[in-house]
Every structure is written in C-alpha cells, then in structure tokens.
Amino acid sequence: MNTNSHAQDDVITAYKDAPARTVDADGVTYAYRELGPKGGIPVVFFVHLAATLDNWDPRIIDPIAQGRHVVAFDNRGVGASTGQVPDSVEAMADDAYIFIKALGLDKVDIFSFSLGGMIAQALVVKHPELVRKLVLTGTGPAGGKDIDKVAGTTYYDILRATLTRSDPKEFLFFNRSATGKPAARAFVNRLKERTADRDAPMKIKGFQTQLKAIKNWGRSAPADLSKITQPTLIANGDNDRMVPSILSEDLHRRIKDSQLIIYPDSGHGGIFQFHEKFAPVAVEFLAR
C-alpha cells in the first residue's frame, strides 16, 4: 500500500485514470483498481453479469471517489483475474471476501449492481461484521421471481444487438424509447473514456457460468434478509427487464429501514440513465 505523505496531494479521483493493480490470494490473482483519498472505510464496487473493470460508469464512481477510497475489482475468472468463474453466487461471495481480506480491509461499504448485488447479499449474510453500508442496485433476492429467466432475456437481447451492430447493454439496460435510446448511447460512450490499460475481456465460458449461477440463485430458497441490519440503499428503474423492478421493492420490504428509489421511464440501467440524480444520493447515503 502506498502511504507516502505526498500521495494525498495527487489523489486520483477519475476512474479512467485509476491504476490497474493485482493482489494474490488463495492461488488467484485478483485484478483491481483503486482511487480516491486513502483512509476511512473504503467503498468496494461489485460489478454486473459479463462485466469487467471497464464496465463501471465513471459518472457513478467519480463522485463517490471525490471523498472516499474506492476499490473496484474483477472476481475470480473475470477480466484480468485468474482462475475459473464459480457456478454459484455464494462461491462468488466467498471469493469477494477473500479478495477484500487480501487487501487488509476489515470494514467496507459495498456498492453493487445486478449480479454484483446478489453477491453482496450473500456476502453480508455470511460476514455481517465486514460490511458497514450496502448499496443494492438493479438486483434481487435469492428465490426472487423470474430471476431464473435472466439467461433467456440476455441471449435474446445479445441477438438483437448483434443484428443491429449495437452494444447488448443498450437493449438490456435501457428502454428502447425516445429517452432510453440516447441515454444508452451516452452510457456506452462513457465506458470508453478510459483508453489506457483497459481490462481483459470477459470470456464466453465465464459468462455462461455466471448465467448458470444467476439461474441457481433465482431457483434457490430465499435467504433470511431480516438479518441485514446495515443501512441499505436500493435503486432501480421502473421497467427492468433483466431483474424485474418488483424485486427491488421485495428487497426493500425485507431489509429493515432500507431506502428505495425507483426511477421513472428507465430499465435495468436506471442509475446510469439518472446518474446526475443518483450519484449525489449515493454519495450522501455513504457519507451519512
């Protein structure tokens, strides 16, 4: 860890400039990026299905990194991290725990999206002492209605995207509407802001294994989320085709005193479409 006193003067707060780092733990080399001022409780970002470090919207990460130490990582078998992608969400949570402990962190806030939110739930239920606050976006609980249909929706939209030569996220994350289409294009362009030191792409086999893990999560017995006592912020768009929006309401009902935001006329990527509204809410929630 770089603890030079002068390092605080030139703190990196733009995700596109965050250095690529690695840490070894339990035979796996985990790829990660960190930014923001050191000290205090770090915010660890848990990314979505088929995503690598290059899939975080800088308009969400950068505002948080203004005042917080932020860590984004590739779980086992994803992007530049070595090893095989596990076929269960619980095993992914075990790997995330190993990664966080390998960085020497004893207490973290978690910001999660989609599959990342499933991993975050599994982690906090198993290791409640590790997590101070939880942000769950575009996600749902174990046993959640229609989560096991994610694979079908995903393959259908990948096909649609291929036929129109566009990015599948434009279909999966956004409504195909007058507001959704430009928001989708803007989001996809923001992901290209980092030009140097980009991550290794997701492997097809790993992606298919992640889909299998999501299907199993959707078909498994519900976890007891009343155990989650951490302050929790839940957000989604009102028309999520991947992880149905009603599952955010389900999470809100089951996690005591949680805060719920549903954005209008938006889909799975509602927090990215409404980043100007959502980022300050997330910053305020994490700082509280």
Explain this structure to me?
There is one protein chain. With 288 residues, the protein is of the alpha/beta class. The chain has one domain: Rossmann fold. It has helices at 58-65, 89-102, 115-126, 150-163, 168-172, 180-190, 204-219, 246-254, 270-273, 275-287, and strands at 20-25, 28-35, 43-46, 70-73, 108-113, 131-137, 232-237, 259-263. An eight-stranded mixed β-sheet has the order 1-2-4-3-5-6-7-8, with helices on both faces. Helix 3 (115-126) links the parallel strand 5 and strand 6 (131-137). The longest helix is centred in the last third of the chain and has 16 residues, at 204-219.
Summarize the biggest pleated sheet: 8 strands, mixed
Shape label: globular
CATH architecture: 3-Layer(aba) Sandwich
Strand order of the largest sheet: 1-2-4-3-5-6-7-8
> Helices and strands: which structural class?
alpha/beta
